[in-house]
Design brief:
The protein is of the alpha+beta class. Helix content is about 45%, strand content about 10%. The chain contains 15 helices and twelve strands. The relative contact order is 0.19.
C-alpha cells in the first residue's frame, strides 16, 4: 500500500483506516523515497510507540527511519530536539520546560487576549466576506510566538512564509532547503543580537544556558517558531469550520461559552492536525498487535487514526462537545509530547471564546464543499476560510 493514503477534502481520515485498525493494525506501506515502513493505527498501539523511546527512535540517522519530507534527513540538526533521543533530547528539553509551565501561560494570557482582541477588531472593521485564516487564525499565534521568542512583529511575514515552506511537502527539496537556509540565517543574527544585548524574551534566556552554541539555539528556535504558530493557526481555522458545518455546535458554544475548554479538547481529537503521522525507527525488537518488528524497520504512528479509534472514543467520527477527550493524542505522548501544548490550548481557548462572544452571527460565506483544504504538509489546514456575519 502506498503512503499517504489518498483522502478527499474534509475532516475525516482516509476510509481505509477503519478497516486497517481491525484487519491490519500494523500495515506495510511504501513511502515517497521508495522506503518501506509500518503504519500503526490503533490508539493503544500508537500511544505505546510514542511512549517507548528506548525501542522506537526519533533520530533520523537511525537505520530504517521513515522519510516523509522532500528533504531527506540523515542526521538531526543541532538543537532540533524533536528528532533526537535521550539523553540529548532531555538536555535540550530541560532548557525550555520552565518557559511553558502553567504559571507562565497564565501570566501570558492577558497578552494573548489583547492580541486576539486587536486582530478580531481589525477583521471586523474590514470588508466582508473576510478570510478568517489570513485575518485572524494565522496572525494571532504568529503575534504570540513573536512576543514570546522576542522576534520583531515586523518580521512576521518573513518567518511565516519560510516556516510554511519548511512544512510544505509539495515543494522540491531545493525550495525547502532555501527556505530553511533563509530562516536559519535570520535566527543566527537574532541570537547573536540577544547574546550581546539581552531582553525579556525566551531567546535571551535560552542563550544564557551554559554550553549552548548558536547553532543549537537556532535549531531549538526553529522548532518553536514553526510549531508555535502554524499548528495553532490551522487548528483555530479548522475548528471554526467544523463548528460551522454543524451549525448547532456553533450555537451551543454561543449559548454556553464556558464549554470552550472542553470543546477544544474534543476538536483537537476530532481534527488531529498532525495528520500524516509521527515517524519512528525501530531501535530494538518490538511487538505491536502481534506483529514483530526488528531493528532497522520504520514505523509511522498515525495520530489521526488513533484519535478516531472507537475502542478509545465511542462514536469517534461525531463531534461531542461534552465528551471528555483529554486523553487524545493530538499533541503526541511521552517524552516528545509537544512542549507548547499548554500555549496552544490557551490560544485556542482565547480565540474561540472571542469569536463566539464577539461574532456570534459568524457564518461561512461559501458552501462547505468550496472550502479549500491543504493536505500537502504534515500539519493540515485551510488555504482560506471566507466568513461573514
Amino acid at each position: 500500500m502506498k503512503y499517504p493514503i489518498a483522502r478527499s477534502p474534509g475532516f475525516d481520515p482516509p476510509a481505509e483506516f477503519a478497516s486497517l485498525r481491525s484487519e491490519a493494525p500494523v500495515c506495510p506501506v511504501s513511502l515517497r523515497h521508495g522506503q518501506e515502513a509500518h503504519l500503526v493505527t490503533r490508539y493503544d498501539d500508537v500511544r505505546a510507540v510514542l511512549r517507548d523511546h528506548g525501542r522506537f527512535s526519533s533520530d533520523p540517522s537511525t537505520p530504517g527511519f521513515p522519510q516523509l519530507r522532500p528533504v531527506v534527513d540523515r542526521k538531526a540538526a543541532p538543537g532540533s530536539f524533536l528528532v533526537t533521543d535521550p539523553p540529548e533530547h532531555t538536555r535540550y528539553r530541560r532548557m525550555l520546560t520552565g518557559e511553558f509551565t502553567l504559571r507562565r501561560m497564565n501570566a501570558l494570557r492577558p497578552e494573548v487576549e489583547r492580541i486576539t482582541r486587536e486582530r478580531l477588531a481589525a477583521l471586523r472593521s474590514g470588508p466582508r466576506p473576510a478570510d478568517l485564516v489570513t485575518g485572524f487564525a494565522l496572525p494571532v499565534p504568529s503575534d504570540v510566538i513573536c512576543l514570546l521568542l522576542g522576534v520583531p512583529v515586523s518580521d512576521q511575514e518573513f518567518f511565516s512564509t519560510r516556516s510554511r515552506a519548511h512544512l510544505n511537502r509539495s515543494l522540491t527539496a531545493e525550495q525547502v532547503q532555501t527556505a530553511l537556509d533563509e530562516l536559519h540565517a535570520y535566527l543566527e543574527a537574532l541570537i547573536r543580537s540577544r547574546r550581546a544585548s539581552p531582553q525579556d524574551d525566551l531567546i535571551s534566556r535560552l542563550v544564557q544556558e551554559p554550553g549552548l552554541t548558536d547553532e543549537e539555539a537556532v535549531g531549538m528556535t526553529v522548532l518553536l517558531l514553526v510549531g508555535g504558530h502554524e499548528t495553532t493557526a490551522n487548528s483555530i481555522a479548522l475548528s471554526v469550520l467544523a463548528l460551522q458545518r454543524d451549525r448547532a455546535q456553533w450555537e451551543a458554544l454561543v449559548a454556553e461559552p464556558d464549554l470552550i475548554e472542553n470543546a477544544v479538547e474534543e476538536l483537537l481529537r476530532y481534527l488531529s492536525p498532525v495528520h500524516q503521522g509521527v515517524v519512528r525507527a525501530v531501535a530494538g525488537e518490538a511487538t505491536i498487535s502481534g506483529t514483530v518488528l526488528g531493528a532497522g524497520e520504520g514505523v509511522i504512528a498515525s495520530l489521526f487514526a488513533a484519535n478516531r479509534d472507537p475502542a478509545a472514543f465511542p462514536e469517534p467520527d461525531r463531534i461531542d462537545l461534552h465528551r471528555d477527550a483529554r486523553t487524545h493524542l493530538a499533541f503526541g505522548s511521552g517524552v516528545h509530547q509537544c512542549i507548547g501544548h499548554l500555549l496552544a490550548r490557551m490560544e485556542m481557548h482565547v480565540a474561540l471564546r472571542a469569536l463566539v462572544t464577539e461574532l456570534p452571527t459568524l457564518r461561512l460565506a461559501v458552501p462547505f464543499e468550496d472550502v479549500e483544504f491543504k493536505f500537502d504538509a504534515p500539519i493540515y489546514g485551510l488555504r482560506s476560510l471566507p466568513i461573514t456575519w
